[in-house]
Task: structure prediction
Amino acid sequence: MKVEPRTLPGFMELLPEDQILFNDMKQKIQNSYEKFGFLPLDTPIIEMSEVLLAKAGGETEKQIYRFEKGDNDLSLRFDLTVPLAKYVTEHYNDLSFPFKRYQIGKVYRGERPQKGRFREFYQCDVDIIGDGELSIINDAEMVSVIYTTIKELGFEDFTICINNRKILNGLFQEINQESLSVDIMRIIDKLEKIGKDNVIESLKDLQIPEKAIEQIMSFIQIKGETNEKLQLLKDYEFKNELINEGIEELEQVIKFVRALGVPDKNFKVDLTIARGLDYYTGTVYETFLNDYREIGSVCSGGRYDNLAEFYTDKKLPGVGVSIGLTRLFYKLNELNAIKLSQKSVAKVLVTPMQDEMQTALVVGTALRKANIPTQIYLENKKIKAKFKYADRLKIPYVITIGETEVQNNTVALKNMETGEQKTLSIEDAITILK
Amino acid sequence: MKVEPRTLPGFMELLPEDQILFNDMKQKIQNSYEKFGFLPLDTPIIEMSEVLLAKAGGETEKQIYRFEKGDNDLSLRFDLTVPLAKYVTEHYNDLSFPFKRYQIGKVYRGERPQKGRFREFYQCDVDIIGDGELSIINDAEMVSVIYTTIKELGFEDFTICINNRKILNGLFQEINQESLSVDIMRIIDKLEKIGKDNVIESLKDLQIPEKAIEQIMSFIQIKGETNEKLQLLKDYEFKNELINEGIEELEQVIKFVRALGVPDKNFKVDLTIARGLDYYTGTVYETFLNDYREIGSVCSGGRYDNLAEFYTDKKLPGVGVSIGLTRLFYKLNELNAIKLSQKSVAKVLVTPMQDEMQTALVVGTALRKANIPTQIYLENKKIKAKFKYADRLKIPYVITIGETEVQNNTVALKNMETGEQKTLSIEDAITILK
Result:
């Protein structure tokens, strides 16, 4: 009796060619994060439920993979932020602040499986954590991180939307709707998705007076270029301290974002961006690929006052962003929009014509020593089958070694794309392949 | 009420400095695997228990992390071989054979926690899978993979021990102990660990006649250089087909290993190497760091006739090796024997002396554009605190920017190791840092 080999629904498992593209994206994100000096972290996937769920509730708790092993109540991590909070508190004395870390790893959420939704998926997080305080310039640096990373992934036409929650929260104070601020933000965050009229309807459902709704709507729809918007915000001449703090921070962030070389065409102030999480307290970000708006935000995050309040009294403010790589890869692949071109691991397939295996092994070893990823075809097959193999694996070059090549100490190098073939010394072949 | 943030026992969680070393080892292993053209794979950590445990039993089953979620009986993978078997069977029609893949990922075993034993650990696997058949030359290539990978990790003095199980199995046929072959192999595999006398005692416990024990012992202790051993084996002039097949294969493997440029000093024939798994059917490998024998084998594996017999009738022979990275890192770190030197992510810390933040941001961005991992110090602290920060993070260079530097469009570059400081143009600083 054979068992049928199946993969669970909601779990991505790629064929090699797609896996190469996926890994390439992952590597480029990592390279970009490291370019900013973020330190790597790799926390366990399993944690004590008590620790992991210290803060959770509602949807998160229902989706969690939770189980007992021996006497332990265990859970699989559902994001990389809670493990970071745990890590920073636990290792506080051994860390240097500001603590800049990135983590790229799998997280688990038992959502109802549906197309493009995954139960196991990669998050790629960067955060900067301060000890007691953290300069606003970090909020600008985060925009530079997003900019550099999305560029590294091959995109040019994208917009990083920046807002500051203090502005919205201040506004809600002004119009006496502070108690509803989380709900209101959840609604206006959907402005683009559900449209103006539906936002107004939803706000009415919250029993917010029409006058207040008008104020909210006119405020979040302020138009203009970045500098104009900032000026319009200041022109309101609010008395509310929180709003003014938010506007001041936003202005600072924009100033430093420009100093960090992020072009104006790649960011904008967007007062509707609220991020549906009550976790954020200041700057918030969302990022859209303008040719693929339907994907939604590809990189989001923001500033928070306190990373680890469930574990410690220490004040640990931070700012960070995250890329949901599994979903992003899935969507881009579906849209045929992946901007990378790596297709194979091996750059060359080395194969004997007939009985020249010894020489093929020597040549293959020489190429590998020169750091050229090389596969040697070791099976006893017809030459046609070997070329077909290289073709299917999209290996760009094939080196064949026949009697003549052994005698002359040369190799025959074929470019699989152009079909061009040359007889060369091994050294010259290495130069071409490098 | 605060929750105490704790990490589960048996789960490795490193401080950044160690994590950098760990990642460096992982990256070097990956680079080495890719140099041979192995394709990347990334299978889910959670699988259906029915699929994952199709073959398991005994110890493995007891150690498994198994739980229910909704109606599903799920388990965490305990190795990367079963997922490979699943993958190859499931995607058979989409793969090209020989299928060469590597997978580096976490696996889970709920062992009793003890020092140096982990419940979550990385395995780094490479395997070559044939469709119906697979040339013996692949067994030699695997030795070249081990050799290249261990060298890449910075070691020179190591020995890859090679054996062929057909030789041992044939011998057990010869002495009429075939039914005990798995048990005998398990015992002689421990020869180095427990010594000759204990091996003999254990064999006696199996009720094996003294004459047979003598034959086993003299056989597995054949001495000499590789070629002498091969000759001695042939001199026995066995009539047993299996032994002769094993000797013939071993001889072939050694021949091709040499063609692949693996020096004789880094491998040897060792007839005691049996690998305690009845899974292997031909060539087997273990690898020892000669200065750190106490770690045990750091890279092991072998040839198997049939990868996926629990899922399919197709014959899928393969050969592969694995590195248990988490334990290896732990042991090497404990012995202060890690041969890599990367200590920080950022190569340089850029910091304003006082109010030169704008320029610092511009300079930092220029360095990052030149692909130099750069951290900009953004907090408002005394210059001494900034240097201390660079020191603690082991960042090798610090660039300071003061009034003079802003005026002259220069930077002050300090080498943190030598203490030497130079005033340079940004371009010259980039050249030095590259």
